[in-house]
Amino acid sequence: MAIIPKSTFLLIIGVVTTLFSIALAIPGTAGFYRKEYYVPTVCYGKKPQGNLLATSDHLGGDFNCGTLLNVTCIGKVPSPCTGKSVVVKVVDNCPGCGPSEHVTMDISEDAYRIIANPIVVQGHVSIDYVK
Ligand SMILES: *[C@@H]1O[C@H](CO)[C@@H](O)[C@H](O)[C@H]1NC(C)=O
């Protein structure tokens, strides 16, 4: 058996993992919610978690508490999309925000403003997200 240096092996794993995560962009839609609802959350109670937040109608799977999601608006630049991506943290569930409204997640208004423009009340945009 050939002896492969450990560092080479780790490098290969790193490259494969990177390629894999690029391939795993998941399509969906995102709505938004306002600042007065950032706290409290199911995951963190009254502890604020910043302004870049995500909620899903179900916690678990891609939406575990604390999971960071890189969300990219898919569509025309400059409207509805700004062309930017934003990393949001899963902090809460939002019963009723899911399939009934056809959104994969609701993100905080601050996060939404980074990726989408202009804000339309009740609006949502097509997105890709990567864990
Ligand atoms: C988020 O995704 C976008 C689009 O794929 C990429 O350009 C950007 O570097 C990513 N940001 C982070 C922090 O991973």
From TrEMBL:
<protein>
    <recommendedName>
        <fullName>Expansin-like EG45 domain-containing protein</fullName>
    </recommendedName>
</protein>
<dbReference type="GO" id="GO:0009627">
    <property type="term" value="P:systemic acquired resistance"/>
</dbReference>
<dbReference type="InterPro" id="IPR044206">
    <property type="entry name" value="EGC1/2"/>
</dbReference>
<feature type="domain" description="Expansin-like EG45">
    <location>
        <begin position="65"/>
        <end position="131"/>
    </location>
</feature>
<dbReference type="Pfam" id="PF03330">
    <property type="entry name" value="DPBB_1"/>
</dbReference>
<dbReference type="InterPro" id="IPR007112">
    <property type="entry name" value="Expansin/allergen_DPBB_dom"/>
</dbReference>
<dbReference type="GO" id="GO:0048046">
    <property type="term" value="C:apoplast"/>
</dbReference>
<dbReference type="InterPro" id="IPR036908">
    <property type="entry name" value="RlpA-like_sf"/>
</dbReference>
<dbReference type="InterPro" id="IPR009009">
    <property type="entry name" value="RlpA-like_DPBB"/>
</dbReference>
